[in-house]
Structure formats: structure tokens, C-alpha cells
Recover the amino acids of this structure.
């Protein structure tokens, strides 16, 4: 593939040394305390799934990490040399609301994010290649000249994912990125995400309601309900008696599916385009 | 100006181009056209057609205030007033949470009524009717300089800010996650629209200025697939209908602004018919 060189340049292997830390993290909006006492370490190369009932504050936590709402406590990022700095955060929203009749191509949107050269004047070849490489890493380089309104939901989410990866983030936040997308689209997306954490030097936080998929793909599960309820590998969380008692209905509902779907992804199976 | 006159004489040796006012008007069309083309595309992207309409109509109140304060040329008061209004509307939208078109509609009607009440005091409304229809042929070289300067500023602003405007128009929260100060960018865009509309109003006319802003962009939108095509087609339509409208208004002796708008409307109709082939 023509873009391989550029892709390799963009990728750094996960070093496993850097991490994002939340210390005593909390969010209060008005007089309502939405989140409190959250202590989390998120290591690079790991996919952390954030699960919890509706209204548990999952999206609020992401928005606070993004800086859209203010928070108490500390949030910092330690790089491989143990230097503290603010992390570069990539974000894929649940759904992108936009005018489907708008004459904007995928390349337009991509370049508008990457450079300040007005996209109405056309694109330089360098930028085009960079966008194509970014899209190639999510198997979407054939969509480069497509109009944004002509894309399917799954394709659009992959493009948003590619945009969140450029420039290379330290922390990738995915807010229910595949709700309302068909099963096949979901699998492509999750395969991509789980490949990402191996190829790039980043940590991923994924908000999801889909217990069965989460148990296949996530390295760690964080159960959130106003504060940290439980934290561990999928096996640990799902075998925890207290958790099963409190949140059991939600888990058991999909337990059948969990058994039906063995852990294929960890074996590093190839990704379909 | 002398160079421009010489150029026109050399390249366009027609009967209409012998008049100085036609040479001036032609240059004005070439200045207003690009400005409206690039503003209009973004106004349509932001779904702000109603907003720019309100700014246009509120110019009446701007003129009225200028007249009350005793200014001979109310342009600066009009510009200041429209900037104030633009900020007020965007604040109102943010803080009341009311639907944007209700807010804007209320403001629009109020401003028109207020302007008419003040201007018609003592029955002297007729001398302001030139603002309603606009008179492109009366433009002077000094005013042209102002237009050229505005065009330059708009192009400069677009060079720096276009991508930010675009991202905010696609989705504000996406723009926010890319570190763009959304509210600031939005307000800046509202102010720019207000200034451009207000400055051009005495030549294009309050009644039709919004059509000139919206129609070329709406037509280009029908048949373009990316931002580059969108802007190129919009620019082409504005310039073509600008020149065609100017010529036809000369031969038919009609109001120039309205004739230009009719030509853009033709383009809109045409693109609407061929749209299925492009979509």
C-alpha cells in the first residue's frame, strides 16, 4: 500500500510506561455533585471500558477530561520519561449532528482539522496524502472524496476516529461510538480500536452499554456509578459477587451473548476492510 | 480610477461602457460579488439566512438613529448599530435558550417597525426609499475604496479563520474538542456578516440584499460536492449574474440590485432542476 511509510511514521509502539492519572477527581454542576472521589490510572496500550447505568456520569467524566466542564481534583499525564504534562486528547462523539445537504467532503473536514490553510482554496498534495494515510489506518481511504452526507453511520464514525487520531493523541475518548450502528459496523469499529492500542502509543477510554462486546475487547473495565464502584479485568469484574448482585440484571441479560462470543480479538486476527 | 476607466475603454468599447457611472457600477459589482459569494456560502452553511435578513432589515433603525442624531451620512451609525444587534442576537440565543428563529423574527419585526416610525415622522419617508431599493449606479470612487477595503478585510479574515468557521458550522462540539473557542468564533462571524451587509446596503437595497447573499450559495450548494467547488460555483454565479444584471438594468432601465437578484434566482432554479444528477 502506498501509504505504508506515512502510516509507520505516524505510529509509535506502545511503550507501556506512560499513563494518565486521575486523582481525587470530581465534578459538581450547580449544586449537584455528579462525580466524586475518582482515582484512576490508565496505562498506554490499554483499552479501558467505562460502564455503568444511565445517569452514572460516564459522559460527564469524558467531558470533564476534555475540559468542556470544570472539575475538582487532579488530572495529569506522565510520559515515558516521567514528565508531567497535559495530555493530547482525541475524542469521538456518540453521533455527529450535521447538515447532510452540506457540500463538504471527507477531505475538507480532515484538512480543516489539520491545517489552517483555507480548504475552499483546495488541498495541497502533502495534506491530501496525510489525510489519506490517516483514513487508511481506519480502512476508509476510499472515502476521501465522498460527501459527508453520503456516508453511512459506521463509515462516519470511522472517519471521526481517524480525525481523533491526528495529531497522535495520548488519550483517546470514545463516547458510545457505535450506538445505533449495525452489528457488522460495530465489529469493524471495535476491531479497529483494539488494533489501535497495540499499534499506537495511546490509552483508550471507551464508554459503552454493550457488555458482551466490552468483555471481548476491553483490557480493563471500570464500573462507574457516581463514583468508582469496581475496577479490574473483565473476568474480575464479572465474577465479583457484589457487582453481580447490584448490577446483575444488566449483565445477565447479555450473558448468553458473552458465552457465544469467545475472545477472538486478542489473537490479533486480521481486520476486514 | 483612471487606470480602471482606461481599461474599460480599451477592453469594452460598447455604448453602455462609455458612461462613467456604468464603469463605476461595473467595478462595484466586481467588488461586491466576491464578498457576497464567500460570505453567503458560510451564512448558508451556518443556516443563518434569517439572521442576515434581520441585519438587513434592521438597517432601517440604524438609519433612523443616524437621522435622529443629525448625521448627514448615517453609514457609521448603521454599522455600529448592526454590530451591536449582532452581538445582542447571539447573546440572546445563548442565554434565553429560545429557538433561534423566534428570537430573530421578533427582533426583525421590531426593528423594521421602529425604523419606519422614526423615519416617517412628518411624512418624510420618501427620501429614504433609496435604501429600500438601493442604487448601485450612484456609487462614488470614495465609496468604492471602502468596498475594496471591506473585501480585503473579509478575504484576510477568511484566510486565517475559514477552517475554524467551517468546523464550527459542521458541529460545535466537534470544533470544541479541537480546541476552537466556539462562541468567540460564532460571534466574530455574526459581526462580520452584519458589517458586510450594512456597508453594502445602500447600493443593493434593504429589500433584496439577503437574496443576493443567499441565492448564489444556495444554487452552488445544489451542484457541488466539496468546499472548493462550492465556493468556485458560488463566485461564478455571483459575478455572472452581477454583470448580466447590470447590463440588463441599463437596457431595461430597471433597478440594478433587483435585476441582479433575478439573475441569481434563475441560476438557483436551473441548479435545482439539474440537482438530481449531482446528488
Amino acid at each position: 500500500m502506498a501509504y505504508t511509510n506515512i502510516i509507520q511514521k505516524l505510529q509509535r509502539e506502545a511503550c507501556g510506561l506512560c499513563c494518565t492519572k486521575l486523582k481525587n477527581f470530581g465534578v459538581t454542576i450547580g449544586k449537584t455533585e455528579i462525580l466524586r472521589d475518582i482515582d484512576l490510572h490508565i496505562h498506554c496500550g490499554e483499552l479501558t471500558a467505562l460502564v455503568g447505568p444511565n445517569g452514572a456520569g460516564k459522559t460527564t467524566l469524558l467531558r470533564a477530561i476534555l475540559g468542556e466542564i470544570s472539575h475538582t481534583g487532579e488530572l495529569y499525564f506522565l510520559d515515558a520519561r516521567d514528565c508531567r504534562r497535559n495530555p493530547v486528547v482525541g475524542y469521538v462523539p456518540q453521533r455527529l449532528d450535521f447538515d447532510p445537504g452540506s457540500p463538504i467532503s471527507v477531505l475538507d473536514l480532515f484538512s480543516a482539522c489539520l491545517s489552517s490553510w483555507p480548504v475552499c482554496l483546495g488541498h495541497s498534495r502533502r495534506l491530501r496524502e496525510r489525510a489519506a494515510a490517516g483514513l487508511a489506518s481506519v480502512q476508509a481511504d476510499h472515502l476521501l472524496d465522498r460527501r459527508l452526507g453520503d456516508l453511512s453511520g459506521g463509515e462516519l464514525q470511522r472517519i471521526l476516529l481517524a480525525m481523533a487520531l491526528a495529531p497522535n493523541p495520548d488519550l483517546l475518548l470514545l463516547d458510545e461510538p457505535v450506538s445505533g450502528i449495525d452489528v457488522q459496523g460495530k465489529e469493524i469499529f471495535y476491531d479497529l480500536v483494539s488494533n489501535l492500542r497495540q499499534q499506537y502509543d495511546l490509552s483508550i477510554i471507551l464508554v459503552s452499554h454493550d457488555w458482551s462486546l466490552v468483555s471481548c475487547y476491553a483490557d480493563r473495565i471500570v464500573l462507574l456509578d457516581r463514583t468508582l464502584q469496581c475496577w479490574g479485568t473483565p473476568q474480575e469484574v464479572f465474577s465479583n459477587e457484589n457487582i453481580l448482585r447490584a448490577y446483575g440484571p444488566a449483565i445477565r441479560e447479555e450473558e448468553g451473548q458473552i458465552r457465544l462470543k469467545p475472545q477472538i480479538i486478542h489473537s490479533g486476527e486480521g481486520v476486514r476492510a | 480610477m483612471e487606470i480602471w476607466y482606461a481599461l474599460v475603454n480599451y477592453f469594452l468599447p460598447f455604448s453602455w461602457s462609455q458612461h462613467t457611472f456604468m464603469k463605476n457600477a461595473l467595478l462595484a459589482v466586481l467588488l461586491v460579488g466576491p464578498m457576497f459569494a464567500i460570505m453567503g456560502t458560510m451564512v448558508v452553511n451556518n443556516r443563518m439566512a434569517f439572521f442576515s435578513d434581520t441585519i438587513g432589515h434592521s438597517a432601517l433603525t440604524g438609519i433612523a438613529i443616524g437621522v435622529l442624531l443629525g448625521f448627514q451620512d448615517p453609514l457609521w451609525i448603521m454599522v455600529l448599530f448592526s454590530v451591536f444587534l449582532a452581538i445582542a442576537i447571539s447573546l440572546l440565543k445563548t442565554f434565553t435558550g429560545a429557538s433561534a428563529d423566534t428570537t430573530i423574527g421578533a427582533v426583525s419585526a421590531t426593528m423594521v417597525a421602529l425604523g419606519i416610525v422614526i423615519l416617517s415622522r412628518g411624512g418624510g419617508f420618501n427620501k429614504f426609499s433609496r435604501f429600500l431599493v438601493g442604487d448601485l449606479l450612484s456609487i462614488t470612487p470614495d465609496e468604492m475604496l471602502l468596498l475594496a477595503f471591506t473585501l480585503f478585510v473579509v478575504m484576510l479574515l477568511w484566510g486565517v479563520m475559514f477552517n475554524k468557521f467551517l468546523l464550527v458550522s459542521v458541529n460545535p462540539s466537534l470544533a470544541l474538542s479541537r480546541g476552537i473557542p466556539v462562541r468567540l468564533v460564532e460571534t466574530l462571524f455574526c459581526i462580520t456578516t452584519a458589517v458586510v451587509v450594512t456597508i453594502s446596503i445602500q447600493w443593493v437595497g434593504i429589500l433584496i440584499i439577503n437574496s443576493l447573499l443567499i441565492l448564489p450559495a444556495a444554487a452552488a450548494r445544489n451542484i457541488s460536492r466539496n468546499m472548493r467547488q462550492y465556493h468556485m460555483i458560488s463566485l461564478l454565479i455571483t459575478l455572472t449574474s452581477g454583470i448580466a444584471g447590470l447590463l440588463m438594468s441599463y437596457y431595461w432601465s430597471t433597478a440594478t440590485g433587483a435585476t441582479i437578484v433575478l439573475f441569481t434566482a434563475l441560476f438557483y432554479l436551473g441548479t435545482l432542476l439539474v440537482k438530481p444528477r449531482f446528488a
Chain B touches chain A at residues 38, 41, 45, 47, 158-160, 162-163, 166-167, 169-171, 173-174, 176-178, 220-221, 224-231 (CB under 8 Å). Residues 95 and 127 of chain B are 39 Å apart (CA to CA). The mean pLDDT of chain B is 86.
